[in-house]
Design goal:
Elements (H helix, E strand, L loop, with lengths): L36 H16 L7 H25 L1 H19 L1 H11 L7 H8 L10 H12 L7 E4 L5 E2 L3 E8 L4 E7 L3 H19 L11 H15 L2 H17 L5 E3 L2 E6 L3 E5 L4 E2 L3 H6 L4 H19 L1 E3 L7 E3 L5 E3 L5 E3 L2 H16 L2 H10 L9 H8 L13 H17 L6 H20 L5 H24 L10 H7 L12 H18 L1
Parallel strand pairs: 5-11
Antiparallel strand pairs: 1-3, 2-3, 3-4, 4-7, 6-7, 8-10, 9-12, 10-11
Length: about 525
């Protein structure tokens, strides 16, 4: 219903996917804290090469601490676990690195949290280990929290809040979140940055950049995200997280994009019009069900398959139409409201594509749906996953993509391991790398994969991807044609290409549920583990 029928409806919900009964309204043009943010964002990004360039000497005191912790992890591994080889070697190293990260403090824990979301990008043993350090950072003392809030807001905490819980709701590596109530009566959450985290991050990035090249080829946990590249990716994400004004702008941008796309199945919390600074972010408080609490969702009568469809559609459409998406989806960063809408939290890591990247990403999606392999390789190249002068035909020949696809379940242990090793070697020889945009996208796909397993295991993946592809072309076809310089009138989905992309070849069925796909993955995993 429109605004004329409901005069009490906040006008900002027309522009943003906010709650309809918000505690205040956001008028973007009036936000004093938002002035000059494009310049600030550009300035922050320009700092990354400086922070990650390898100097003759990094901060020596911090280097000594980091080297000591890493040495304590790597030496026992080299003397014991490494000799055992296989999964025991990787598992032992992963455990020792996780312990070292926890002892080194918030910056390294943050790096570990990023790795913990990288299933499929890093060895499973490393991912599982670093999941153990997620959200287990010791909170700052209350007097330090009070000092940051009062310094940034410029007044005593009692002058702004009638109550402020000293015990945080959550404590993460960069900041911690407290429940509070404004003196005007609104319930809010307040994100407060750790007081010395900026200096520590800058020191640690310089140390990481100095150490990373020494680890290349020496530890079996890198794959395409080799240590120097991983440090660069980490720097790109964490530097923007250190200014909460940028995070608040991310919240507004994503909420505005969802509104433009009419993706009203998502809700973003309103940042406060006045109480946002570099180190303090005040926002309205939202409440709901944990995303993976299947029993609670079903008891509340929420259609969990509809929740998954909302997540898939909103995530994909935001990427390819506007080039922006939440870059760190995991169970702690979203929940489900009692009406089935998805509330997104924590926008510190938000992916923003250039027009070239968005165009490449759009081609990647469309070519994937139609089975256009050369188009997919070219899109990967333009996203930065391959050098700019890469010959597409040469990649296709080297990887065997000009041959009939092979179902991985038809390979025995030796063939499967050999094929993985061959492809990895070929990619490394081509100079393949994992660019930030692609890493964040894959991380989110991994999260959605797990969410489907939990909330909608009988969802027909082929049907959902086909329907989503057709809808995108139907709704945005004119824009896609203008962006790519091609006609999409004759666009048709190739379901066999979708299934091949999921690793399914020798199957004539037009459907594929997640449960069926997982059974195939389990078979492949067992073969690989047996080979180890």
């Amino acid at each position: 219903m429109d605004h004329t029928e409901h005069s009490d409806r906040p006008t900002d919900v027309e522009r943003f996917t906010f709650t309809t009964d918000g505690p205040w309204q956001v008028h973007r043009e009036d936000l004093t804290w938002a002035r000059g943010l494009p310049v600030l964002r550009h300035s922050v990004r320009r700092q990354v090469p400086t922070l990650t360039s390898r100097r003759r000497l990094p901060p020596l005191p911090r280097l000594a601490v980091v080297a000591g912790r890493l040495g304590a992890a790597l030496v026992p591994w080299a003397l014991r676990d490494r000799r055992a080889g296989g999964s025991r070697s990787v598992a032992g190293l992963s455990r020792r690195l996780r312990v070292a990260a926890e002892r080194l403090g918030p910056t390294y824990i943050k790096l570990g949290q990023i790795i913990s979301s990288g299933e499929g990008l890093f060895p499973a043993e490393l991912v599982e280990e670093f999941k153990l350090c997620r959200d287990k950072v010791r909170p700052e003392p209350w007097d330090q929290v009070r000092r940051v809030v009062e310094e940034d807001l410029g007044r005593p905490i009692e002058a702004v809040f009638s109550s402020f819980d000293p015990t945080p709701i959550a404590a993460a590596s960069i900041a911690q979140v407290h429940a509070a109530t404004l003196r005007t009566g609104e319930d809010v959450v307040v994100k407060v940055q750790r007081p010395t985290i900026r200096q520590r991050v800058e020191q640690d990035l310089r140390v990481m950049s100095w150490i990373a090249p020494l680890l290349v080829g020496r530890i079996p946990v890198a794959a395409l995200a080799n240590p120097p590249a991983l440090v660069e990716l980490f720097a790109e994400t964490i530097t923007e997280e250190l200014d909460f004004r940028l995070e608040a702008e991310n919240m507004l941008d994503v909420a505005e994009v969802f509104a433009l796309l009419d993706q009203r199945g998502f809700v973003i919390a309103r940042p406060h019009p006045d109480l946002v600074t570099r180190r303090v972010l005040t926002m309205e408080r939202l409440r709901g069900f944990e995303f993976d609490d299947l029993d609670a969702l079903q008891s509340a009568g929420i259609d969990t398959e509809a929740v998954i469809r909302t997540g898939m559609a909103g995530f994909t459409e935001g990427c390819i139409v506007h080039g922006i998406f939440h870059g760190d989806l995991h169970g702690g960063n979203l929940f489900v409201l009692d009406d089935g809408r998805i509330a997104l939290l924590d926008f510190g890591i938000t992916a923003r594509m250039t027009e070239l990247e968005r165009s490449a990403f759009l081609r990647l999606m469309l070519c994937g749906a139609t089975g256009d392999i050369p188009g997919q390789i070219a899109a990967f190249r333009d996203l930065g996953a391959l050098p700019a002068d890469t010959d597409v035909d040469d990649v296709i020949r080297s990887l065997g993509l000009d041959q009939a696809p092979v179902d991985p379940t038809s390979l025995d242990q030796e063939q499967l391991v050999g094929e993985i090793q061959r492809i990895t070697k070929e990619l490394l020889g081509m100079g393949a790398r994992l660019p930030k945009i692609l890493m964040l996208y894959v991380k989110n796909l991994v999260f959605l994969d797990g969410a489907i397993a939990r909330l909608a295991p009988d969802l027909d993946l082929v049907g959902e991807i086909s329907n989503l592809s057709v809808r995108l072309v139907t709704v945005h076809g004119a824009r896609f044609a203008a962006d790519l310089g091609i006609q999409v009138d004759g666009f048709t989905v190739d379901t066999s290409a979708i299934k091949a992309g999921l690793g399914v070849v020798d199957d004539d069925s037009d459907t594929l549920t997640y449960r069926e796909l997982q059974a195939r993955r389990d078979m492949i995993r067992r073969r690989l583990e047996s080979r180890r």
